[in-house]
Write a structure and sequence with these properties.
Strand content: 15-25%
Largest sheet: 10 strands, antiparallel
GO molecular function, one term: tRNA binding
CATH topology of the largest domain: OB fold (Dihydrolipoamide Acetyltransferase, E2P)
Protein name: tRNA-binding domain-containing protein
Number of helices: 13
Radius of gyration: 25 Å
CATH architecture of the largest domain: Beta Barrel
Keywords: RNA-binding, tRNA-binding
Number of domains: 2
Organism: Hebeloma cylindrosporum
Oligomer: single chain
Shape: elongated
InterPro entries: Arc1-like_N, Glutathione-S-Trfase_C_sf, NA-bd_OB-fold, tRNA-bd_dom, Tyrosine-tRNA_ligase_regulator
Order of helices and strands: HHHHHHHHHHHHEEEEEEEEEEHEEEEE
Distance between the termini: 43 Å
Length: 397
């Protein structure tokens, strides 16, 4: 199915707007084959009679939380089709109703402001007139903070009984089958190997992807290229069993030891549905740390709104078609070919010293601004610059 044939299935005047913006369906179809399929898929959804309904709008609002554009990370025909399909519905919403779907409202307002959409819409009369939203009057989001749970102290057992568990455990261990013992030993060896890999700055496969210069001396002045950033892919995520605000993720970083366990405090800011199968940027050479009983072997790089956490937190996204383990580096001759430290020494506070310069630009591109020279060094891979979905002027950590 081609983009042009899919567009022709749209109802009027949606079809006319999409054809006008895309110049008869010959443009804005996606820069890659995978993107093109996504674009066609979303245009096809816009042809369906029930695409705009109360339930579907709520689902779309959830989908759009981390996104600027619906199909890819750039403007496409899918955005024109979705905007045009939404217009009759959104135009009838009262403030309280469009406040209830803030991501849809933000997205709709962004697409209607696109110059090509506005120019083409003018030729279609009142069908796609510009809508105004009272965003200043939107209610502030309420975040409930649960009181910490008090742990009940177990009653003390008599002295004779206190030795029983140890004796029981000893008996249980001695009665374990050889197969179970061998399985436990293999699991322990795998965890030790993963910890050694994390502390050494990556596996032999990923080490070759780092810069070509000799490793930087640990006692040198802190610079961002000392930080080992890589593309990661969340292959599994659950809520921490003993901490309501933490996720425990398994992140594929392209290492032969398998995914790393990473603990992130994002439960109250990013829904778990938006974490699953996500590509991100990870800080890989921090010293592993215990987080409420679970050892974390990396850190997820996030953008925090300039208004603070209550204004939103988003995962920094690598360019399209990134692969786990892709090297992430800072633009500039001083940094591009530098080799990160094997592990950041917590006492040197290298990350803490460099971090205040991390920011998202007006383009939402992630960058480090040198505090001394004010030079801008974008954070990128060989495929392109890493970005935040929506946040501008956000700090990164």
């Amino acid at each position: 199915m081609s983009l042009q044939s899919t567009i022709l299935k749209l109802n009027s005047p949606i079809k006319e707007l999409v054809l006008a913006v895309t110049r008869d369906g010959k443009e804005l179809g996606g820069e890659t084959e995978a993107d093109a399929k996504e674009v066609i898929g979303w245009v096809d959804k816009a042809t369906q009679a029930d695409f705009v309904s109360e339930n579907n709008i709520k689902d779309l609002d959830t989908i759009l939380i981390p996104k600027t554009y619906v199909a890819t990370n750039y403007f496409t025909a899918a955005d024109v089709a979705v905007y045009a399909a939404l217009h009759p519905f959104v135009s009838k919403l009262q403030p309280s109703e469009y406040y209830a779907v803030p991501s849809v409202t933000r997205y709709f307002d962004h697409i209607q402001s696109n110059p090509s959409v506005r120019t083409s819409a003018q030729g279609l009369g009142e069908s796609f007139k510009t809508l105004s939203f009272d965003l200043e009057g939107a209610p502030k989001p309420e975040r409930k903070v649960e009181a910490p749970k008090k742990k009940e102290k177990a009653p003390k057992a008599p002295a004779a009984e206190q030795t029983a568990p140890a004796a029981s455990a000893s008996k249980e261990t001695s009665s374990s089958s050889p197969a179970n013992q061998e399985k436990a030993q293999k699991k322990e060896k795998k965890e030790k190997k993963k910890e050694v890999t994390a502390e050494a700055g990556g596996s032999k496969d990923t080490a070759g992807k780092k810069g070509g210069k000799a490793p930087q001396p640990e006692d040198a002045e802190p610079v961002p290229s000392m930080i080992d950033l890589r593309v990661g892919h969340i292959v599994d995520v659950i809520k921490h069993p003993d901490a309501d605000g933490l996720y425990v993720e398994q992140i594929d970083l392209g290492e032969d030891t398998g995914p790393r366990t990473v603990v992130s405090g994002l439960v109250n800011y990013i829904p778990i549905e938006q974490m699953r199968d996500k590509y991100l940027v990870a800080v890989c050479n921090l010293k592993p740390a215990n987080m409420r009983g679970v050892k974390s072997f990396a850190m997820v790089l996030c953008a925090t709104s300039k208004e603070g956490k209550e204004g939103g937190i988003e995962l920094i996204q690598p360019p399209a078609n990134s692969k786990p383990g892709d090297r992430v580096y800072f633009e500039g001759s001083d940094f591009e070919d530098a080799t990160p430290l094997a592990q950041l020494n917590p006492k040197k506070k290298i990350f803490e010293t460099v971090q205040p310069g991390f920011i998202t630009l007006d383009s939402r591109e992630a960058a480090w601004i040198n505090p001394a020279t004010k030079s801008v060094h974008k954070i990128r891979t060989a495929k392109g610059v890493c970005t935040a979905p929506t946040l501008v002027g956000a700090s990164l950590s």
